[in-house]
Structure formats: structure tokens, C-alpha cells
Amino acid sequence: MISECGANVVAAPLSGQRPWAPTQRESNPLVPATDEPFNCLSAVELFADLSPDELAAIDRMAPSRTYRTGELVFSQSQPVHALFVLQSGRVRVFRVTEDGKALTMAILEPGAVFGEMMLVGQRMYDNYAEAIEETLLCELSVTDVEQHLLSDPRIAIRISRHLGEQVARLEERLTDLALRPLLARLASTLVRLAEPQRRSRTGHVTIRLTHEQLAGLLGTTRESTSKAMSDLASRGLIRQSRGRIVLLDVPAMTALSTATA
Amino acid sequence: MISECGANVVAAPLSGQRPWAPTQRESNPLVPATDEPFNCLSAVELFADLSPDELAAIDRMAPSRTYRTGELVFSQSQPVHALFVLQSGRVRVFRVTEDGKALTMAILEPGAVFGEMMLVGQRMYDNYAEAIEETLLCELSVTDVEQHLLSDPRIAIRISRHLGEQVARLEERLTDLALRPLLARLASTLVRLAEPQRRSRTGHVTIRLTHEQLAGLLGTTRESTSKAMSDLASRGLIRQSRGRIVLLDVPAMTALSTATA
DNA sequence: TCTGCTCTGTAACCGACAACACAGATAAGA
DNA sequence: TCTTATCTGTGTTGTCGGTTACAGAGCAGA
């Protein structure tokens, strides 16, 4: 199950396809992104300050494994005990209520780091994480994190920054949910999803999500989401196809997202 | 305006009244909490690991000032450039939309630390903070934080833990808002507000908030809040008086807070 | 090509909560 | 004590979005 982090990993779609590499590295495409000995970490912003040697050291203590579509990474019964680095595939982090309704906290793309909640000593942590594609993760144990990462100021700062950003994004979502009508929230969410994406020369961005998945992020139903999406489409702001959304006019969407009624 | 952090500060209500001191110190009431030379920091969980000398060192670089009721601590025009420690009084952190509606992110009590958003390099930070009572804050600059706090693993870990907890609480609120009806959210919020409070021998806890302020936390209107509060009162779960709420049956409230309809 | 699944569009009904509109109640000051 | 501002209680009406219920559409495998 737990295989060494390396080797068979960096296959096809990592280079141009989805731009999950940190920006510094994009501007310097000298590194061929192939058979480097440490695949887990080299592309992760968190470790951007480290030398190759240091990276390798950390990499050695980060075993990795694959998850099949639908497989749970953690849950109530399998509480978090590690920090995860997403290498390939996609992971959905979500919560469920007693009666089965769910709200998804995030849909993570390669390069993302998650599982920070282990820091708070997993009291109540009702988060689930599931692979929504064939996925490869590598994981660092709590003690490794505390001893090797937080004790290194360069990384400690980045961790804090990362958590701070998460707080900022959650606060944004919270006020959106509380104060804005569905259409604005939808626009806002789509723009947010588009952000990390590289946009084509035309300014278009493609998001690979179904209405159902979007609804999970919005905290609303699939039906309402479809309705709102049709609305956006009829305004010419997006184009749709099965499981795929193309944003045609990001500025207009951004404007819409600050509408209050 | 900016006075040295000390001297005239530790007056009446710090000791028993509101239990904002970290638990370790409560169990050890040897320190009389009077004219110690470092008032800002000694009671803050973040610095619990530090020796008195180290505390004093940090204290020296933390100027403090008072804010009058209604005064803004930061806003758009006065963006965050520091980490604040709340010594006395209360602060409300909130966001506003274009049309003037507001959602309050938190109401902070003495001992709280806030302003972590400076970590993310204040791009979009639409948070406001206002004193809702006569308030005394002391502040640490960004550079101080990065150089002296994050570089110290003991503090770095606590900062990360603190941010992690904030993430957890925000995720909780987000799902509450998305998936639970008002009454459950109200119960949940009251219980959350009661948590840090010491409860009397009868199990009762008092919360000093108006319906208006509660509504701000709930993301709803004052009227709806009043209605729901009446409901709780008629069930015998709370007792009310002007600006004051007494929780009579925390377990029952907790149960209510997980209701889904 | 046919079968079946998942994804998307639409429509009628209904319910929780917002908006608006007052009235009484409590506290602070003059 | 009287005045005034701030809180709190409650009713009426409107609406956004949830619910339920289908139907068509794209795609996958037999």
C-alpha cells in the first residue's frame, strides 16, 4: 500500500496541461520536471525556500500511496494524522450532517497541501476527504511536521501564510453565503475556481466540475445551480458542456459576484 | 497616542471576572496579576512557553493604545499592519458589502489575538475591526512577528495551531450556515460563545450580547433572531434580559444545534 | 446499435426567512 | 422625574430558493 514516494509518478499531464507548479518555477523552465529523485515536494510552494538537499531529506520521510476514485482519504473513523501533499488527481474535502446533506470545503488540485487540522489535535474534526479521481498523495506525519517543518522558520512562515489565506478565503465564502443571492455566489465561486488556472490567450478558463459538485461548494441544490448556470449562459458569460464550464468573461463575472440583490 | 505597554493598565476586572487567562495560569494563581512589568503578553496563550525574560523582551516592542467605543481599529483605509493583543474591552471584527449589510466574523474578549491577516500580505482584506467597548490593545509589527515570533518554533507552532483552530471554527460556521435552519444555528452559536466562559456552579453561563449583535454573527436579521430567541426562552433553555443572555441548559442547546430541520 | 447511467434543463408548489412596520420596555441623562 | 435612545416583541406580506417530479441529452459499455 504505502510505496516509496517516487519513480512511476511524473508522467504525462504535469508540465503544461495544468499549471500547478509555483510561479517561480514556471518562469524558469530549465528543470525538465522528469526523473528528479523527489517528486512529492519539489513543486510545492511550501518548500520553495529549501535547497535540493533539504528537499530530498524531507522527501525521504514522506511515503506516498494512490487512492482510487471515491476512496476516502480520511473520515471520522480514519481521523487525520498527517499532512498530505496532492501529487496527481483531485481530492474533495467535505462535511456531512446527520441527515446526509454535505457541504464541500474544497476541491483540491495537484500541488495542494491539506490535512492541517491535525495541528489542532483532531478533537472535533468532522471533515471527510475523498479522491474524486485516481489520485496520488504523499503524507508527512504530525511529528515530522512539528519537528522538521515548524521548527524551520522559512517553512513556518509559509505554513502560517497558507493557513492565513485559508482563513481569508473561508471568511469570504462565509459572507458570500450570508449576504449574497445565489447568482452572485455562483459567479464569485466560479471566479475563485478559475483563479489558480492559467487562462488561454483568449482569456477563457475551463473548469472541470459538474453542477452537482458546484452545488456542493455553493451550499445549495443541484437544481438551483443548474438554473443559475443557465442564467449565466444566457447572458453569454459562460459556455457549458457536460462536466465542463468555460468562463468567457471573467471581469463581468467578477462584477456580478459583488451584486447584492 | 501610542503609549508604552504597561503601568496604568491592569485595573479591576482582569482577575476573576472574565476568565481569559490561559488555563495553566488559572490553576496557578500565585501571580497577583498586578504591577508585573509586562501586561500585554503574560496572559496570552501564544506566549505560554516563554520565560519571563523572553516575554519582557517581546513586550518591549509592543506598544499599546486605547480605543473608544465605536472607534475603528482597522479598515479599508487603515489596513492591517500589525498583530493585536486584546488586553481589556471587546472588539468586533466584521465585513460589509456594498449595500451596507454586515457579517461579524468574531467578537473578541480579553486575551484574544487578532490581525493574523497581515501574514497574507493584505491584498484583499475587507475586514473591519471596531471597539465595542472602551478597549486597550497592544500591537506587534509584521516584521517583529516574522522575525521574532515565527522564527521561534515554540511560538510558530502555537500560531499555526491558532490559525488551524480558526479554520476549523470557520468551516463549522460555514456548514451551519449552509445546512442548518436558523434555530439550530442560534443554539450552536450560543453554545460556541459560552465555551470559553467559566460556568457557575449551577451550570449557567451568561453572554453579554444584544440580539442585534447576535444577528450579525448569525448572518440574519435582528427580527428573526428575536423570534428564535423567544422560542428558546419559551422552551426554558435560556433566560433573557436587556443585552444579556443566560444559558440554562447547555446540553439541550447542544442537542438542538445539530437539528437539521 | 441498444442499454443504461450520469448529467442537465424545467416547472409547480411550498416554506423559511427577509422586509417593513409598529409598540412596549428598559436604561441613561437631563 | 421626564426625555430620549436603545433594546426587544410580534404581526403581515413578499420572495428566494428548496422540494419534488420528470424529460431529454451526452457518453460508456455490451
Using only C-alpha atoms, the radius of gyration of chain A works out to 19 Å
Portion of residues within helices of chain A: 25-40%
Please write the string of helix (H) and strand (E) elements of chain A: HHEEEEEEEEHHHEHHEEH
Number of helices of chain A: 8
**What oligomeric arrangement do these chains adopt?**
homodimer
Strand order of the largest sheet of chain A: 1-8-3-6
- The backbone outline of chain A, from C-alpha atoms, is globular
- Mean pLDDT of chain A comes to 83
| Total strands of chain A | 11
Largest sheet entry of chain A: 4 strands, antiparallel
What does this structure look like?
The longest helix of chain A has 27 residues. Chain A is built from 8 helices and 11 strands. In chain A, the strands form 3 sheets. Chain A has a 4-stranded antiparallel β-sheet. In chain A, strands 2-7-4-5 form a 4-stranded antiparallel β-sheet. In chain A, strands 9-11-10 form a 3-stranded antiparallel β-sheet. The N terminus of chain A is likely disordered. With 261 residues, the first copy, chain A, is an alpha+beta fold. Chains A and B meet through helix 4 of A and helix 4 of B. Chain A binds a DNA duplex (30 and 30 nucleotides) through helix 7.
